[in-house]
Amino acid sequence: DAALNVPDKKVDSVCPYCGVGCQLTYNVKDNKILYVEGRDGPANHQRLCVKGRYGFDYAHHPHRLTVPLIRRADAPKRGDFTMDPERVMDVFRPASWEEALALAGGKLKEIRDTYGKKSLAGFGSAKGSNEEAYLFQKLVRTGFGSNNVDHCTRLCHASSVAALLEGIGSGAVSNPVMDVTKAEVVVIIGANPTVNHPVAATWIKNAVKNGTKLILMDPRRSEMARIAHRFLQFKPDTDVALLNAMMHVIVNEGLVDPDFIASRTVGYDELEKNVQSYSPELMAPICGIDADTIRYVARLYATSKASMILWGMGISQHIHGTDNARCLISLTLMTGQIGRAGTGLHPLRGQNNVQGASDAGLIPMMYPDYQRVDNAAAKEKFEKLWGMPLDPQPGLTVVEIMHAIKDGNKEGKIRGMYIMGENPAMSDPDANHAREALAALDHLVVQDIFLTETAYLADVVLPASAFAEKTGTFTNTDRLVQLGRQALDPPGEAKQDLWIIQQMAMQLGLDWNYAHVSDVFDEMRQSMPSIGGITWDRLEREHAVTYPCRTEGDAGQSVVFTDDFPTATGRARFVPADIIPADERPDAQYPMVLITGRQLEHWHTGSMTRRTMVLDAIEPDPVALVHPLDLEEMGGKPGDIVTIESRRGTVSLFARADDSSPRGAVFVPFCYYEAAINMLTNAALDPYGKIPEFKYCAVRMTLGGEV
Ligand code: SF4
Questions:
Q1: Is omega for the bond preceding 628 within 30 degrees of 0, making it cis?
Q2: What whole-number percentage of the chain has pLDDT above 70?
Q3: In terms of C-beta density within 10 A (0-12 exposed, 13-18 middle, 19 or more buried), how is residue 589 classed?
Q4: Of 25, 51, 354, 478, which is best to mutate to test ligand 1, by the most ligand atoms within 8 angstroms of its C-beta?
Q5: Which ligand 1 atom is the nearest neighbour of the CA of 476?
Q6: Residue ranges of the 4Fe-4S Mo/W bis-MGD-type domain (predicted)?
């Protein structure tokens, strides 16, 4: 019956998945999304990928949490994870909101008052709105009383942000993705946009069609290789060797931009000296790219009228992730390829709001707008705004919090946590350790829409709202602040996240009263100069405004650093980097390299997309992408079950022959709970960004096992 598919309302919103930030329209009937259409947003111009178009029905899934849950006194916190909703009530009992909030917040308060302010921590979410991120970090800073607040930026671009803040004074992109259409040369390194930023990939493909030269650099061959002018499949973990060799060529062939270096930067002499020991001839055997190719791409990048660099987790998720990003920044600065259309630096942000959540202060060392917590003036400013004294010491990061639960001394031990919309039991490295840590907490409160692997370990579970069930702002990878609008009512007794955070704040003794999400946004504007000029009315009217937008009426600036950098001197800083090998190299016992990442159809830990009919039908089973010759050498064939082991854990899953992975490396997506690959990954951290080394650890693979 055609009438069944006629929507009773259309709601303009944004996509809940990746950082591209495609605008879309929800077509709704009887509180159900019928279908989704692309809108003419600045980042997508009506385009949507498979996730944006078909990934909406998780909101209607029968696994949705519809009542608050309290763990039964006799329910163990370990082992036997279940995704079976039938078994939820073996572990939890339903509770009223009143009882659940009193226990959730009351017990956190008791821990704080007994063991001190550093005994609590919170993880917010890069999937939530800016307003939710802002209120969550405010709750931790004022209600818990410490800066122990973080989110999954620590697992994706924290090292890029550390390098960017240090080098150019800003952690966001210099140019929007769409600028690839104005570039003569585009370098993509350590990113697979076709899979992870699909609509952005279409703009890159369009640019190439119109003559832009694409230089793709990656240990794995992605689909972009087909259209690349040059594809450099360098050996895993050798980014610094390759990038320093390119800089060696640029320096020694006189291809630098001396005026830009002299007028806009500091520290060039040290950088120049450092790259001298990285000749292409010396680096070629290390990175696996011949010297002539290194020379060719270095010249191409340096001499084009406009060259732009985009990168992803392949750069950032290493113990030398900050060094990798420092090299990209130096390349850009020495050639003056920044501050103009079609140039610059673009770390492709993963989650739909990882940029905004970081901007809003959901990180342990910075208040909103990257104002340092250990800066006296910033602290004073926020003490005045929030009306109470604040802790001047930076807090712990994601992985540090897990260690502080299990191994913290009397003063530093974390005993209680509030986790909103994150799933560290799946997403953290060395996930067995993370799960043991979460289970060891005296008190864990999880706010989510499903009983995730993390929620399964909670003492109290608070049923929250899905993306389409709330209104808020979300900041995409281009620094575009966009309005997501509510299209559905939450199911059962599930509540909007902003309401839940406020209720939790009250349990901790805070007196908050934000009547509308726009009240929170208005408070954010007071403390965040970068968005000071963006009004709620304007967002309602225009749907999206780019920051920096400092004063009302300001058009917003999509290309930044045109005249200076937001550093104390206005100049950018070169920071040299040397080769640091991966923390865990292959050896006789564990001879292969494990690389983790995402699939086109699934999102992060899979809690949403694996409950989406179309997406899960396309990719229903956990797979390991193995080079066909490696598979053949093991005596296996595609579809066989393989078991992968590291020093930290074991998983079994289906082998898929895939010659885009180099020999000796296996790629596994981290979205499958039945083969949670992060049980194998290494929790060693980059010392600056504190990001774990997801892109490299030693494993062995054998045929057989059980999925
Ligand atoms: Fe959504 Fe990203 Fe796909 Fe756009 S490219 S539809 S934002 S997942």
A1: no
A2: 98
A3: exposed
A4: 51
A5: 7
A6: 8-63
